[in-house]
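Exercise 7b. C-alpha cells:
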C-alpha cells in the first residue's frame, strides 16, 4: 500500500516538479543543436538517425515549453 499523501489534489510525478525558464529552454535548444552536430559529424550517424533524434528531442522540448510556461 502507498503511504497517504500530506497534500491535497492529484498525485504528482517527478515531471510535475520541473520548471524551466525561457533561458533554460534556450540553453536546452542550443545543447540539442550541438548534440545533433556531434551525432552527425563526430559519430557519423546516418541522416535518418539524426532526423529521428531531432524530432523526438524537439518534441520533448516543446512539451516542457507548453506544460511549464515561464
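Sequence design result:
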Amino acid at each position: 500500500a502507498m503511504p497517504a499523501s500530506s497534500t491535497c489534489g492529484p498525485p504528482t510525478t517527478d515531471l510535475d516538479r520541473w520548471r524551466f525558464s525561457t533561458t533554460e529552454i534556450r540553453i536546452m535548444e542550443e545543447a540539442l543543436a550541438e548534440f545533433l552536430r556531434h551525432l552527425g559529424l563526430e559519430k557519423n550517424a546516418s541522416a535518418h538517425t539524426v532526423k529521428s533524434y531531432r524530432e523526438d528531442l524537439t518534441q520533448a522540448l516543446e512539451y516542457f515549453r507548453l506544460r511549464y510556461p515561464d
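Instructor comment: The chain has a mean pLDDT of 82. Helices lie at 22-42, 47-67.
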